[in-house]
Amino acid sequence: MAGSANLAADIQWGARWQAGIEGILALRSVPRDGWHQGNGLAITGFGLEARRYFRTASGTTASILGHGSIPAPFTGWYAGTDFHHLKFDCLRSVGKVGCEGILYTAGVTGGYTLRIASNWTIDGAIGVGYIYRRYNRYVGYAPDGLNRYLGTKKGSTFGLTHAEISAAYHF
């Protein structure tokens, strides 16, 4: 999610392949007593990704404390697939319509990884594919600190599923 804190772990194998898993957490403006008194947004989820780089990894990084060297991070253009599952709860303000539900995305990605230092890379990617969402709509109102259920919406479409700029440290 845009601006959220993500933590990911990747594994590289062969000369061109990489797979990873990420955890997603975004909590902003969550009032102490729930969504009833102000703006709130909570997002949790996870993602899976597999990549194939178009050129092979070359070389190694410098030795670490004299204990041998490690493979250089993959760099260059890549193509891959990704899947994300997100659970969200969002209320703009009391009296406005909020929603809570799930979002699934699955698609193909393309991107570029640029090596900027011995173990650091910058990665940019974009992906398109299938999007499924199901959520409950509600209105929060202050007097009783309750939410009024307005109904459930669901749907699916094809569109932008992934946009990313990230910095990564490779151990």
Which secondary-structure class do the elements indicate?
mainly beta
Distance between the termini: 25 Å
Order of helices and strands: EEEEEEE
Q: Residue ranges: pLDDT <50 for 5 or more in a row?
A: 60-70
Sketch the major β-sheet: 7 strands, antiparallel
Q: Per DSSP, what share of the residues sits in E-state strands of 2 or more residues?
A: over 45%
> How large is the radius of gyration?
20 Å
The largest sheet has its strands arranged as 1-2-3-4-5-6-7
Overall outline: elongated
Number of helices: 0
Helix content: under 10%
Strand tally: 7
Mean pLDDT: 79
Characterise this structure:
- There is one protein chain.
- The protein is mostly beta strands.
- 0% of the residues lie in helices and 68% in strands.
- It has no helices and 7 strands.
- The chain has a 7-stranded antiparallel β-sheet with strand order 1-2-3-4-5-6-7, with no helix packed on it.
- A hairpin with a 5-residue loop joins strand 4 (76-91) and strand 5 (97-115).
- It is elongated, with a radius of gyration of 20 Å.
- The chain starts with a strand and ends with a strand.
